[in-house]
Amino acid sequence: MEIPAQDAAHMARAVELAGHGHGTTSPNPVVGCVVLDAGGQVAGEGFHAYAGGPHAEVVALAQAGERARGGTAYVTLEPCDHTGRTGPCSLALLAAGVARVVIAVPDPNPKAAGGAARLRAHGVSVTSGVLGAEAERVNEEWLTYARLGRSHVTWKFAATLDGRSAAEDGTSQWITSAAARADVHRMRAAADAIVAGIGTVLADDPHLTARPGSASAPTSAGPASLPSATGGTPVGAVASPAVVRRAADVAGGAEGRQGAGRAGDETGPGNGATAPGGGGQDGGQSGGQGGGQVAGAGAGVGGGSEVRVGWAAPTSQARPGGGVAGGRRPLRVVVDTRGRTPQDARVLDDAAPTLVAIAEDAGTGLKADLLRLPRHGRGLDLEALLEELAAREVVSVFLEGGPTLAGEFLRRGLVDRVVAYLAPALLGSGRAALGAAGVGTIGEMHRLTFDEISPIGPDVRLIARPATQPGREQ
Fold it and tell me: Which terminal CB of the chain, N or C, has fewer other CB atoms within 10 Å?
């Protein structure tokens, strides 16, 4: 399909906007929207900033106001067609009088899908598939979660140029620079869960918390904003109650209702429970009079993290309701088949919630939140682990758990992205960054494709992904 240049340009902007929701929308997707007026000029822009807050379409329509009538909306994910914590975006677009909607990716969640069909049924022209690959990439964590029913996995490791993660005597602090370590903490803060194996816990006694430092200091300005192409309300801002109320009225319509939503009733395969380190608890009531998409008025718990475009260095973001970037505490998960985690391990302190995954038949006196899983070989069923985490609304996992666990995730095809920090140093011996990964001959190598190669202080950060990812890009 040949894409008109105007459609490509405006959808590219919508994809860029969507990226600014990374780390703050879980368990919801990241979505961006651009609204043109009838003359083809940009009238409004927006992105979904946090779970329970206004969707991208509602932010853009509120900014556009009456200029949206007869215009075109570009949105990276099919507009939702159900009432959860917020009203249907399909109704918001109809109420605004938009004449055409351009969609990048259809919504794979049957609970929320149907917006395109409703729009067509009411005479709106709908075009789908514009910059679908780009929109898939910016929203890949949530799409993996929604399509496959499991958490998306990013494996991170730090190593020397010869692939060593520790010296021969086991020492590993510090292979990479302070700049690289700070970057890791920013990435941790944008994940829903940080996973490590028992070997790492016993050897290093890690804290496994996100400590992004001054880069994520609380702000008082509300959600981070982008410059508005229209010169009006900053993109993504919901600081003005009048703008939010107008968006709520448009989104709510006759089907709206007053009341607090519950986590899990909006998108994804969650079970309706708010999980530690998942989407966080929206403050107060999510959705006001008329089912509108407005922020809660109470204090948010565990909400919000880093704002980033793709994998650029995150900046700070605050949430209405009290949750602030840097205050979000990703769930810590220890993969511990036999339940050997020491009771005094730092990973069991109260700095963040922790889940210890053990075999369903393991006997242990460990006092912790335990998740019993089937055995698989000498370890645990990692597919079952990711499915259980998804049921707890953990969309994204940051895997840091040593060479053995990383090898098992790779062997089972459960690594969706690799982030490697390479230091300009050589060890020649010591622990390799990756253990056995099911490769017996050169033809069985796990092939990757590079997304990014970036200097981080004196080190280099490489971001890559498996060359084939069945089930995700559909």
Answer: N
Give this prediction's pTM.
0.75
Structure tokens given for 326: 């840097």
Q: Which residues pair with 159 in a beta bridge?
A: 422
CA 144 – CA 116 distance, rounded (Å): 21
Please state, in angstroms and rounded to a whole number, the distance separating the CA atoms of residues 188 and 181. Answer: 10
Catalytic residue among 2, 16, 45, 57: 57
Tokens 């990756």 — which residue? 434
- CB of 73 within 8 A of CB of 102? yes
CA angle 376, 379, 380 (to 5 degrees): 60
Contact 9, 130 (CB under 8 A): no
Tens of pLDDT, residue by residue over 309-352, are: 333 333 333 333 333 344 578 999 999 999 999 999 999 999 99
Strand 354-359 relative to strand 32-36, pairing: unpaired
Is the separation of the CB atoms in 461 and 452 below 8 Å? yes
pLDDT (tens digit per residue) in 79-129:
988 777 677 899 999 999 999 999 999 999 888 788 999 999 999 999 999
Answer yes or no: 57 catalytic. yes
